[in-house]
Amino acid sequence: MPPQIAIIMGSKSDLTIMQDAADVLKSFGLEYDLTVVSAHRTPDRMRTYATEAKSKGIKVIIAGAGGAAHLPGMVAAYTTLPVIGVPVKSSNSIDGWDSILSILQMPNGVPVATVALNAAKNAGILAAQILATADDALAEKLTAHKKQMEADVLKMAENL
Ligand code: RP5
Questions:
Q1: Which residue among 33, 62, 80, 105 is least crowded, i.e. fewest CB within 10 A of its CB?
Q2: What is the pLDDT of residues 17-41, one digit of tens each?
Q3: Which residues' Cβ are closer than 6 Å to ligand 1?
């Protein structure tokens, strides 16, 4: 089966952050298509990627970018697939707020589910949760993940 999740980013320099999405998806046994798609440097590639993703079997797109971060919003403009935006604090980002606000403040009608700054791991978990609405085995893995987090915190509290 082709991957159902896409992880795209504006530059290879975003990969240090975006790798967290890939890693968490791998931990749930999920395949992904990971590549660089730049809204500003490769606008035609971005349009093609966004418009063809659904027909290739993609169900959720995770898009990360920094600075004037237009990739998630522009991809969302071209597709009805859910888009999860990851604001990246990149080398050209003033303080991260530029990336956050570029991705967060979408106009009505074109949503991007924006996670916290550099929170690619949460983007991966959210993508898995979206797929899990139609996949009971995956939903069980997500429940186990929550239980593990709970156990870890309780253990940490005990050892304080
Ligand atoms: C953004 O510009 C990219 O998403 C990246 O976060 C940032 C810097 O890109 P590079 O100059 O490192 O390629 O479009």
A1: 80
A2: 999 999 999 999 999 999 999 999 9
A3: 9-11, 13-14, 38, 65-67, 88, 90-92
